[in-house]
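Data availability (excerpt). The following record was deposited with the supplementary files.
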Amino acid sequence: MKSGRTAPPGPAAVLLSGAAFGAAAAFLGAGVLAGSWPRGWAALVCALVLAALGATVLAVRSRSRTAPGVPPAADTPGRAPGPARGPAKTGSAPDLTTTGSVQGPARTGRLPLVSSAALWALALLASGLWAVGSGDDEDDDRAEGRPGARPTATTGLDPRPAVAWQVPGAGQKYDEAVGAWGLGSTVAQGRIDGLFAYDGTTGAVRWSVPAPARQASCAMSPDAEEGIGLLAFGRHEQPCAALLAVRTADGEVLWRRDLPGDGLTGGLAVGGATAVSAEEKAVRARSTATGKQSWQRPHGKGCAPLAMDADATRTLLVEQCGERARLLALDTRTGAERWSRDLPVESGASASVVSVSPVVVAVDEEDQRGTHAVLAFDERGNPRGSVPLAGPEGILSVHADVGDGDPARPLVLGDLLITLSERGELVPDIVVAHSLADGRKVWSHRAERQTMALAAEPDGTVGVLENEGVGHVLLLDSATGKVRDRIAPDTDPDTAPDMISIRPELVPVKGGHVVLNQILMQAEPAAFALR
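Predicted structure:
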């Protein structure tokens, strides 16, 4: 007759039951408490620890059943032969007179202990490997921008988004915009498909002047004055010859003129109430209100305009006359010549007017040993300071593709010329100020990132657009170059989309800045606002 007691579990049963118990407990606990299942090393360590616990419990129970003081069943395998005894009395003490050894069950009890010890060893090894690899996992989380590694917003920050609004790009890749005007609460951009004015707060198009069918914007006055600006259109491979005057309050076209011959050859400008255009045969002035011509000045024999700009009282014109070049100052209202100055040029050159008042022009001569500099003049045309386009501070940026630097527009504030510069890099990363009086360097600031554009801020500081994330704006003291403030939108540079193209302009508006991309490379917006 068999005893009612069951044999202790074998090693395989111990391992399977312990592992099942550990895995079930690990996943059930993780699902209830953490809300997600453990993965990777975490799951392995949990399973091994709880499997070891389960194996230990089973080993202890098995050991207790086969302790020396517990009489085995009569039919238990391995029991030593001995005299038969009757049933034990309830409550009687164990029989200590038995001398036979019990071998089978004692050996089976040691195996679960060995198994549980092995599981504990594996759990400890897995824990050590997990600890070593956890640092790399956290670094990977940060590098990949996973949700658990992103910085959290803090209270007190501006609740508006870093990019308050954006306008989708228009046209084809490499299409170039022709200019922009800052109009207080509005920013106007001359795109290839017309002139568009964006509300500085919302980005809504307040008004527009669409380009005529099969025509594109080809020129624009640097500024709008007394509420009027100039815009020109032209057909493919045809002269830029359709001139329009636009009222900036509502976008109404006040008048249109078709220019003769090759149309515009030296630029557009608004000076007070006068619209000035450098055309093929002459410089002409018209009323901004009516378009009626007020004066014209024919080009000299063998001369052609290189650059032109104007304010309410003075029009500056750079002419190339054979191998020579000269700078003319004309009265904007009458066209009368105020003075003329020969430039230090003995070969073909490119030029741009950096400032009308004070008088500053940039000249880049074809002769490698010729003039490559920004030149300043006094009110009578006498030379003042000269700043080389390439020098100790690197290669200076000048608009209109003058020189070898980036075509960012310089600033003239008081008696300082402030430009971007590249030194030892392929992109500008320095802001440098030179004196217009003698050309000496006054200050320089090396930025942490690529510098893209400059802007004169309403408070007199210098705004610098840095190419970082969606764009940062650095505010520099114009007199010393020291950093006053940094406007850095709270975005993740690793996940933020590319917003800045290769030739942007920075325009201050109330509460922030508007960035205008003048050449679109990929999927950048035509314009966007930074807060």
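Summary of structural features: The two ends are 91 Å apart (CA to CA).
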